[in-house]
Write a structure and sequence with these properties.
9% strand; 11 helices; Dbl Homology Domain, Chain A; PH-like_dom_sf; alpha+beta; PH-domain like; 2 domains; Pleckstrin homology domain containing, family G (with RhoGef domain) member 6; five-stranded antiparallel sheet; DH_dom; 5 strands; 336 residues
């Protein structure tokens, strides 16, 4: 398994530490910080799985807290732990052992292959970050409503093995750790004097940042999709009638509009967003109040239904690229 502790300092294993320049010492300290915090993180995740989740499974065996599953508290945290244990054994530990055996300084280039594999090594973070807020909210709700959960959590958090960690802190650890890698690598790069090594560290920082951006993009995509789904549920199915049953068939085929459908002319990762909603007075035959919804690519004119909270589309959807806006003079009887 992964070791539980390291030497007190990098100077215990690097022979030439006394003859190093200030910059070289700072570089070694930055690399030691990366190694030390990685092992600390792994050990804390291990506490979450081997103590907190194991204690919950023990409660289940005796019929308690059946409504609380490990995934509701920690999502796929065991997968994240597995990924970091592998990262330790394949990347961090070999670099550490090389220094222990030779006494030579830590070589940042030993990190390059592992850091350039971040997207392949750590895909579990997409799911964890997506469900983190839901897990925290579930925990809060259980604390407010379930005395048994409060008792379980009090026992876990006061266990000596827990080291004064709180459940909320454990849930936040993965998000905090994955976003810290660019800072840790930049600290190494800043204190590296060899230009090729500096360039390699720049590549590592760039790729890790790109990986974090891809997680943020994924979360935004999910958030936008959910928001659009909520907006779509408010709107009744758009029904546009033709002049006869036969014409109706063709009208429905070509004139149907699904708010959840892809935005035309862009990639699948661009989700339609609701930008504005206004209740406007429109004069047709008589003054009519319409709820007008402005989306990324379309304008919907709807009317509130008396028997429900839903909105009925009363005019054909207006694609924004075909709309011409003309400012009318004051005093004109037409509004909006």
């Amino acid at each position: 398994g992964t070791e539980k502790a390291l030497e007190k300092s990098w100077t215990d294993i690097v022979d030439s530490h006394e003859s190093m320049s200030k910059t070289q010492r700072h570089q070694q300290e930055a690399l030691w910080e990366l190694i030390y915090t990685e092992l600390t993180y792994i050990n804390k995740l291990t506490i979450a799985t081997d103590l907190v989740m194991a204690a919950l499974s023990h409660c289940h065996r005796y019929g308690f807290l059946q409504e609380v599953s490990p995934t509701m508290l920690f999502s796929n945290l065991p997968s994240i732990l597995d990924a970091h244990q592998l990262f330790w054994h394949e990347v961090m530990y070999p670099m550490l052992q090389e220094v222990r055996l030779t006494g030579r300084p830590f070589d940042p280039l030993r990190l390059e292959a592992g850091c350039l594999q971040f997207p392949d090594r750590f895909p579990a973070y997409f799911e964890y970050c997506l469900e983190e807020e839901r897990n925290v909210e579930f925990t809060r709700r259980q604390l407010d409503t379930t005395p048994q959960f409060h008792t379980y959590l009090t026992w876990v958090e006061n266990h000596p093995q827990c080291g004064r960690m709180r459940l909320g802190g454990m849930q936040a650890k993965p998000h905090q750790r994955i976003t810290k890698y660019p800072l840790l690598l930049k600290a190494v790069q800043k204190t590296t004097e060899d230009q090729p090594t500096k360039n390699a560290l720049e590549r590592m920082v760039r790729l890790v940042n790109h990986f974090l951006e891809s997680i943020n993009g994924y979360l935004q995509l999910k958030e936008d999709t959910l928001a659009l789904s909520v907006a779509a549920q408010r709107i009744e199915e758009c029904k546009i009638e033709g002049l006869s049953e036969e014409i109706d068939k063709y009208v429905r085929e070509f004139c149907c509009f699904d708010l959840m459908s892809p935005v035309r002319g862009v990639g699948p990762n661009v989700i339609r967003k609701q930008l504005m909603e206004e209740t406007l007075k429109v004069r047709i035959r008589k003054d009519t109040k319409l709820v007008v919804l402005l989306f990324t690519d379309v304008l919907l004119m709807t009317k509130t239904q008396k028997k429900s909270d839903k909105l009925k589309v009363v005019r054909p959807p207006l694609p924004l690229e075909r709309i011409h806006c003309i400012e009318l003079k004051d005093g004109c009887e037409c509004e909006h």
